[in-house]
Specification:
By secondary structure, the chain is mainly alpha-helical. The protein has 3 domains: 10-83; 95-167; 179-235 and 264-273, no CATH class. It has helices at residues 10-31, 36-52, 60-71, 75-83, 95-105, 123-126, 131-138, 144-153, 178-200, 219-253, and strands at residues 157-159, 165-167, 210-213, 283-286.
């Protein structure tokens, strides 16, 4: 775990990549009043946490020395961070997100034409195909009424003329709830980065992490491609949701237990193209 010489300049390349990753994150932090000393303390805490993962707890004193060498932090600082980690506790999985995901992915909640069905609000009316039963199937210690009110507040659901609960958004993007959006940012970007790091370190098996880049596009072209990407994501979301549910049910029927978590995502971004000497051709890249 000790530092090693880097004659090839890979450390500089790594720092450049880290700068690209950190720039939008720092922009978000500054927008919400996070100061340098807070970020510095968090970075030190994370470095100690990661460096300690492969070190046996039974050799505490030696572990602190090895972490100190690996991170460049003094031993008293390492000891303090090990004893008093500053990383805030995660709020955990979002019940609303899980409800939204199950509702849109499980085919029992779709009609013959594949459209997402509105649900009776109470199980006394709709039985297993009710909003109340859906929430209970995901988390039994949360009251369905609370989930209903939160999802309604965020503009995700509404009641139709028959008093049924219907989805009015095609994607779970609770922009009115900063805590919920930050939870998604950490989970989604963190998972994406974990995959890229896994592949960059040459670990096995290779994980899917690819993207396409188009240059020299007009605003109209960007809008058309963005719309098509959203359409394809909705289709893929339904197909993969079906596959996950089917395989989970099959495993359960065959007595197979699982402990793996899988996250699949898609994103798009667009910025001003500054290299006008390049030909505007699409290209693909992968980690």
């Amino acid at each position: 775990m000790s530092a090693s010489p880097d004659p090839s300049g890979q450390s500089l390349q790594l720092l450049h990549a880290a700068r690209q990753v950190l720039t939008p994150l720092v922009r978000l932090m500054l927008a919400h009043g996070v100061k340098y000393n807070q970020l510095q303390e968090l970075l030190k805490s994370v470095m100690v946490e990661v460096a300690s993962e492969d070190i046996a707890r039974s050799q505490a004193m030696r572990a602190q020395s090895r972490i100190s060498v690996a991170t460049g932090l003094r031993r008293p600082e390492v000891k303090r961070l090990l004893e008093e980690p500053i990383t805030p506790h995660s709020k955990g999985r979002s019940v609303m997100a899980d409800v939204f995901g199950r509702w849109t992915a499980d085919r029992r909640y779709r009609d013959a034409r594949g459209r997402i069905k509105p649900l009776a609000r109470l199980s006394s009316v709709g039985g297993e195909e009710s909003f109340e039963a859906l929430v209970r199937s995901i988390k039994k210690d949360v009251h369905p009424r609370s989930v209903f009110e939160d999802m309604q507040r965020l503009g995700l659901i509404a009641l139709d003329k028959q008093g049924r609960v219907k989805l009015i958004q095609s994607a779970f993007t609770p922009k009115q709830d900063l805590a919920e959006m930050l939870n998604f940012l950490g989970a989604n970007v963190g998972s994406h980065l974990e995959t890229a790091v896994h592949n960059t370190l040459g670990l096995s098996p290779d994980l899917l992490e690819q993207s396409m880049l188009g240059e020299g596009l007009s605003d109209r072209a960007v809008a058309q491609v963005e719309a098509r990407a959203r359409e394809e994501w909705r289709r893929l979301f339904r197909e993969l949701g079906d596959l996950m549910m089917q395989t989970m049910k099959q495993d359960k029927a065959e007595g197979i237990s699982g402990d793996r978590q899988m996250r699949i995502g898609m994103y798009s971004s667009n910025t001003v193209w500054v290299d006008e000497e390049k030909a505007p051709t699409p290209s693909t890249s992968s980690a």
